[in-house]
Amino acid sequence: MRISVNDLTSLTRKAIVSFGYTSDEAEIILKVLMFAQLRGNNQGVVKLIGSGIPMREGNGEPVTVKETTVSALIDGNGTHAMLVMDAMTDRAILKAKEHGMAIVGNFNTTESTGALGYYVDKIASEGLIGFAYASAPFMTTAPYGSTEPLFCTNPFAVGIPTSNDPFLLDMSTSEIAYYGLIEAKTAGVNVSEGCGFDASGAPTTDPAQIMSGAIKAFGGHKGSALALMVQLLAGSLVEADSFDNESDNAGNLVMAIDPSILTNKERFENENSEIIERIRSAKRIGSKNEIFVAGERGYRFKDGVLESGEIDIQDNLLSKLKEVAGE
């Protein structure tokens, strides 16, 4: 079903507020969710259906437990990860602008960070290089050679400024994001072959069976290695839990680097654009019409949506979103 962007934004805001967030908190979460939705990313409004994003009882204000001129470690105190990550990103930007680079981590957040691309896009928009990692003790993904879920979907993102839109790599290290399974289940469709296993370890395309079994790490042993890398950086480095499904102690890590500590910033951005254009102009395979670089499809999708003022949303998903919003 097609819905106006304004109507979807209003509906999403109502749904977020229904979980008990303040208007200011809701606006931050709204920006993160709509960033994904307007780019065709499955980290958008689907996060609000089902159990949604309830506030954890007894949560408190995030607290800085360790800090240097270029770093900070934050105890999220059960605060929603999107709120903590947004504040961490702003802090990393300020430190990087002042000291050339910054690394900010947190433990003890709850719920999903949303699309990590949101945070690195924010960093890259300030002319800085951004990195973001997220891991949680919600074991959904099996390492290569196993059917036992030991990783979360362990996404990471990189944003690099250019003279045009940033280079924006935002990916989970699993074959499909967990919310991709939820979207498929909500729509009543199967996922592609090779995404995961059922509880007995047999391959399946049924999203519900994969949710009770395990998602595959993408790309075989290489993807599995990346998943482990994220777990080490956004888990043990920031004092978060890794292998306890009963824990809510999720971790995140944000890094920002000012390219001017190594090179001229304008030269860097211009050369990045030239490199990207050279990649896009490479010889095509067969009838392939165009070569895309990371983030380009998302920016184009967003531009098209904003130009038309409307966006497609799956009927069942929209219906469930309206239920959450009380409409």
TrEMBL record:
Protein's recorded name: Lactate dehydrogenase
SUPFAM superfamilies hit by this protein: L-sulfolactate dehydrogenase-like
Gene3D superfamilies noted in UniProt: 1.10.1530.10, Hypothetical oxidoreductase yiak, domain 2 (3.30.1370.60)
GO molecular function terms listed in the Swiss-Prot or TrEMBL record: oxidoreductase activity
Family classification: Belongs to the LDH2/MDH2 oxidoreductase family.
Entry keyword Oxidoreductase: yes
Origin superkingdom: Bacteria
Organism annotation: candidate division WWE3 bacterium CG22_combo_CG10-13_8_21_14_all_39_12
Keywords attached to this entry: Oxidoreductase
Pfam families xref list: Ldh_2
